[in-house]
């Protein structure tokens, strides 16, 4: 067990109690710090680029509640809008004009989306889109990529990255084999493997779903030609191309990774940012495909809290902030500096390291690289990452507690925050 020089007495007390109340003491596995060791930090409050724990320690936060906090935590405009919305009630379970506003914003922004359905999480968005892929094509098989995470629905828990990778569970008990029999997997950035799957399964593959930039096996961008290649193959075989932009949507560009790379998939899933920190998800795409969704069409999918007025409000305000001129340039500039200088410091300290960034998403691996897929990512020195993570935490920098997660910056991260982070990194890297 790694000992800490931080005073985290209260965190430890609360987490010890939590472990008796909730499995592993958490509401979602990666938060428990299992893959980096040591105690997780119990948060008290968050603001801008910072998080404060229950012992009063402040951290520069590079997780941003796993992506949603792109404008900075608890942005005053979002809070103000939420206070006003709260007065009108917390849930309607009936149509509201807020849904129209956010739907229009999403449709305007994301090239592939002509119609959208709101749900409550990224998991729900992905499990619903999978049903839609099957309903539309009348085919049952799908292709996903090793290390890509599409939420915790049964049919996606095959080589699923994220917490599953972190915990070393290639699959989960409780997932019936019959549920994953139709889930085919290929290595990311490997078009030949995808072609081979289509050839071996003629006329039975509904489509291909992927994170257009992988964030759940660490940060892995697509090779040039990979996304256009997938579009070509899926079209050739009458299958659908689905981008899971739960993480990359409104982060890589206002229109997501699909805008950045100029590839328009048939369907897209969203989450995180479009709820501005409240629970949300969405799926959308071509109008003819979305017309299958109930009650317009026969594919059933529903939700008591879907289109929740508070989530819609936080999402609308967040997108309003993001569409201001210069936001993505700022995210890119700050994050580029962080990623480039971090890599340089690590190399100067003699470590094998590789990584990169696009817009406000970054990552690095303790291996020579290059990393094109999950197998390459697994060559990373995980023990070294754990020590780096703990060292940074002790110096007030909160990084994702797993080598297999991307990092996120926000519009609230300043050059001073980056200076502080790099100084901490230099000290830690020279001591590993
Ligand atoms: C790409 C991707 N898809 C789906 C999900 C699942 O979203 P949620 O955790 O909101 O269920 C995540 C979560 O991190 C994700 O990164």
From TrEMBL:
Keywords: Chlorophyll biosynthesis, Cytoplasm, Isomerase, Porphyrin biosynthesis, Pyridoxal phosphate
Enzyme class label: isomerase
Cofactor(s) this protein requires: pyridoxal 5'-phosphate
One GO cellular component term: cytoplasm
Any single Pfam family the record assigns to this protein: Aminotran_3
Keyword presence, Cytoplasm: yes
A GO MF label: glutamate-1-semialdehyde 2,1-aminomutase activity
Localization terms from the record: Cytoplasm
UniProt superkingdom: Bacteria
NCBIfam families recorded: hemL (TIGR00713), PRK00062.1 (NF000818)
The protein's name in its UniProt record: Glutamate-1-semialdehyde 2,1-aminomutase
Organism: Stenomitos frigidus ULC18
Gene this chain is encoded by: hemL
